[in-house]
Amino acid sequence: MSAGTEVATPHGAARIIRREADGDARATLILGHGAGGGVSAPDLVTAAGAAVAAGLHVVLVEQPYRVAGRRAPAPAAQLDAAWLAVVEHVRAEWPLPLVFGGRSSGARVACRTAADGGAVGVLCLAFPVHPPGKPEKDRLPELAAPTVPVLVVQGLTDPFGRPEPAPGRDVVLLRGDHSLKSDTPGLRAAVTDWLAGLVLGAP
User: Fold this and answer.
1) What is the pTM of this model?
2) 3-class secondary-structure state, position 101
3) What is the CATH number of the domain that holds 158?
4) What is the distance between the alpha carbons of residues 53 and 110, in angstroms, rounded to a whole number?
5) Are strands 5-9 and 150-155 parallel, antiparallel or unpaired?
6) What is the rounded CA–CA span in Å between residue 116 and residue 7?
7) Domain containing residue 79
8) What kind and span of H or E run contains 114?
9) pLDDT grade for 3, boundaries at 50, 70 and 90
10) Per-residue DSSP letters for 68-92?
């Protein structure tokens, strides 16, 4: 994995880490982290490795609040604006179809910005359907916002809830919780199969 590169955004510098595809790349997967963690989260590392092996470039995005050393996440509008600034930087460097993705809070950002950023698909790892114990505060409208194919990989015992499949949305349930650490082979297979169908023309 290469060293990080800072990218200017309207809300401070973001940091990106690039991983080049094995062979000729057909697309780029941009992945964002969760609210309290970074780009080294196990499920992000697994998804990135699966994408590289499947022939996609990968860009891991560290939001400006984390680059600046703050623990509390920035407001949604700031996260989205910073993300879209990174998207434009990546598009200029690698002019390929872009797949947005992320874990938890990062998945929400990917869904909210998919249309404005021109994503061809959205990969959601542990999408937080609602805060733990508060199912009435659901975020399903965000998950329903993309008009491109969506894959959600969710733990069976995730306290943040489980979304249902819907037209254009595949949901893969794996054993384990919000961390998605309990079934790494299952996660890798789900991401690989979905990306193959999305951008590589596989059955």
Assistant:
1) 0.95
2) strand
3) 3.40.50.1820
4) 22
5) unpaired
6) 19
7) 5-199
8) helix 105-117
9) low
10) TT--SPPPHHHHHHHHHHHHHHHHH
